[in-house]
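Same chain as my last thread, 422 residues:
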Amino acid sequence: MKLGNKFILTAFIAVAAVISPCSAWAQTGVNSPYSRYGLGLIADQSVGMARSMGGVGVGMRRTNTINPLNPASYSAVDTLTFIADMGFTMQNGNFQESGVKVNARNARVDYLTMQYRILPKVGMTVGLLPYSSVGYAFSNTSTVRRDEDGEIQSTGTYTGTGGIRQFLGGLGYRPAKWLSVGVNASYMFGELGYSSVTSFSESTVSTATVNNEASLSALKLDFGIQTSLKLDGAVLAIGATYTPATDFSGEVTVSDLTTDTEAEPQSLSDGAFSMPDMMAVGMSYSARKLTLAADVSYEKWSDANAWGQKYGSDRLKLNTGFSYCPDNTSKSFLQRNTYHGGLYMKQPYFNVGDGKGPMEYGISAGFTLPVTIAYNSMSYLHFSAQYVRVQPASSGMIAENYLRLSVGVTFMERWFAKWMVE
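reply #2:
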């Protein structure tokens, strides 16, 4: 790769890494009242083509794809290759409650990752990804008193913003041809802000305003392992990951503007905010044209806390997907593309009132277009569409429907090839 092109690509990545957290990531990309619970809505950690494959990745090994879901996969990167991956998402959300429907649109930068080989059997990945998002604004009105003088109504207005992001660095090592291990170390950081305002139709009754803010940080570790077996022209890969529980540190500020008091920031007590033990297993079957994959994960959120209270529910996730490329050497546009599809199901990790939160179901489809820039440069454009249904556990709760359109760009460069001079 020419020095000028390498400098331009490196500068682009560096600028994106600086700008994204400050601007695009400041927009949480969600409008859901369910994001007020726990740490907010937990983001999908898959990138690139895995987005349209139902979010699979624990058992996936590809030389041209970055896979943060299992750090053991990093050792699959080619010795001479540098990979950079960036993605964007736009979504339209539809919210339904008691026959009333409301739409909301959002757009956000999803992720920025880079991967390369640092030793003959060791691959390295760094990236910036969202972990959770908070974004909601809603209100309700009720009658608090009714007598001969009339009635007094109260209106509660609730808003929330913020989220948790993660700066990730990981290594994958292949001690044997059939075995790879890896670890991610992620610095988790972010702010959560919640506001509630209760006003009354009677002017003599004071408006009550309470603001809760938390500034959080933590170090999260993910351990991964993968093994692969060749089967008559195909490869069967099996993977597993484990994430130990960790506590957040930081400060919490509670301001009660009703009494004109604003508390000083207080350090978090141990375990006031935490993440639980998480485990996942997955497998993939890759033939010449077709790849099939499936993951199962279990997260013990009932042992973790937010604002000093238990989340309430353990979570089980099921993901499955496929990819198919008719002929990657063909001159035909349609034959050269790779086509993807997938399904997933997620249980809630939080309770709503005395019951469980909503179930989430999703279906996705998309394709990857290879683009040859130069003899030593190959890029991929990933396009995917996803439909998501958030189904409440009981009547009277809000049902949500989302249509998400995602675009990803993968840059691949042979940076480390050496010229032979006779």
